[in-house]
Design goal:
The chain is an alpha/beta fold and 298 residues long. The protein has ten helices and ten strands. Strands 5-4-6-7-10 form a five-stranded parallel beta sheet. A three-stranded parallel beta sheet has the order 2-1-3, with helices on both faces. Strands 8-9 form a two-stranded antiparallel ribbon.
């Protein structure tokens, strides 16, 4: 089974747009980009376009690369205070002179639709209601939409980042129905692997559900995957390919063709987890505008 994030995203974004039309409020998302990093420019552009298609107010804030910490904090505080802005997202990475942790913490937790403010991560840890980080949230929606339950399963996550590995582990570990309000995720037995894990293939072979988020192209091979396992590939990497017009192709952290022969379900790259990240950002922003949290139904 191919876990098609593009198709699910299209459906969910249509639901978000319909809910927006019936909500009586126009959700507003402000994205802040400091500098001119090409990849960040592309990411922000895709978020802005998705907002506009959903009927949101999309405010694009561009700041020069030499912007100071104090100047950026002033911009964020101004957006925090505005009633027409319900989500504030600061695109990373930030220039060297900016303390990223301080900036993340300066966003109002109730406008932190990215889900990375210490308050929202604390809420997740406690099982309280709060905005969920968008990529882990998208993974849980992708699995549940395919009828794949994590309850009672052995889940192995390769990667311990704050963006994916750590929050996703908390969601899968949560008592069913109490993971920050999630109703269909939890009660898994979770193992988080990283660069210091001994005999990684032996660990991944024990996974009913294997999530790969390490940023190494095609790292996971078929001999690391149990027959019939569900494989979620979070990675997106450029590798040189002279046969392609742009001189490269996009691959995940999983050797797709090889692993797909063995897995019971797998996400493609591109078109798997990636589209879900932006979709859950829209979802969170709509719920912020409605004074709800991301787990409440549309």
């Amino acid at each position: 089974m191919i876990l098609d994030g593009s198709a699910l995203s299209k459906t969910l974004r249509e639901e978000v747009a319909e809910a927006t039309r019936g909500s009586g409020v126009k959700p507003g998302l402000a994205t802040i980009l400091v500098g001119d990093d090409p990849a960040s420019f592309s990411y922000v552009g895709s978020k802005q376009r998705a907002c506009e298609r959903a009927g949101f107010k999309a405010e694009d804030v561009r700041l020069p690369g030499q912007t100071t910490q104090a100047e950026l904090e002033d911009v964020i505080q101004g957006l925090n205070a505005r009633d027409d802005i319900h989500g504030v997202l600061v695109q990373q990475p930030l220039p060297k002179q900016i303390d990223t942790e301080v900036i993340v913490a300066s966003v109002d937790p109730d406008k932190d639709v990215d889900g990375f403010h210490p308050v929202n991560l604390g809420r997740l840890m406690r099982g309280d209601r709060g905005f969920l980080p968008c990529t882990p949230f998208g993974i849980t929606r992708l699995l549940s939409s395919a009828g794949i339950s994590v309850s009672g399963k052995n889940v192995v996550i390769v990667g311990r980042s704050l963006l994916v590995g750590k929050p996703l582990a908390l969601m899968f570990l949560a008592k069913m129905g109490q993971g920050g309000g999630l109703q269909d995720t939890g009660d898994a037995t979770v193992t988080v692997c990283h660069s210091r894990t001994c005999d990684l293939p032996a660990v991944t072979l024990g996974a009913d559900i294997l999530v790969c988020a390490i940023g190494i192209p095609e790292f996971v091979r078929a001999d690391m995957v149990r027959e019939g396992a569900t494989v979620v590939d979070v990675g997106i990497n450029r590798v040189d390919d002279s046969t392609k017009p742009r001189g490269y192709r996009l691959v995940g952290d999983v050797m797709y063709d090889e692993v797909a022969e063995k897995a019971g379900a797998i996400t493609p790259v591109p078109g798997g987890v990636g589209p879900m990240t932006v979709t859950m950002l829209l979802y969170n922003t709509l719920q912020s505008a409605r004074k709800l949290y991301s787990q409440d139904p549309l």
